[in-house]
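Q: I'm building a small set of examples for a reading group on sequence design. Run inverse folding on the following structure and report the sequence directly after it, with nothing in between.
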């Protein structure tokens, strides 16, 4: 079973699941993945700061994780 993420997860915890998630977030416009503050934020909080839709990011990341598992 593939790992899944949700918008209430801390970004650092998401990256522990799969470091490749960083590329998805950065391609979506979230370029501060390596910042110390980003490491303690939830995906929802970071998306709000960047004017992004957290639900769309969750779908994209979970699709990536599912494809990787397959």
């Amino acid at each position: 079973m593939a790992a899944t993420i949700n918008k209430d997860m801390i970004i650092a915890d998401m990256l522990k699941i799969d470091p490749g998630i960083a590329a998805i977030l950065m391609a979506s416009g979230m370029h501060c993945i390596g910042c110390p503050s980003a490491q303690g934020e939830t995906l929802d909080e970071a998306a709000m700061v960047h004017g992004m839709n957290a639900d769309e990011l969750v779908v994209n990341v979970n699709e990536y994780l599912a494809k990787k598992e397959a």
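The chain has one domain: 11-69.
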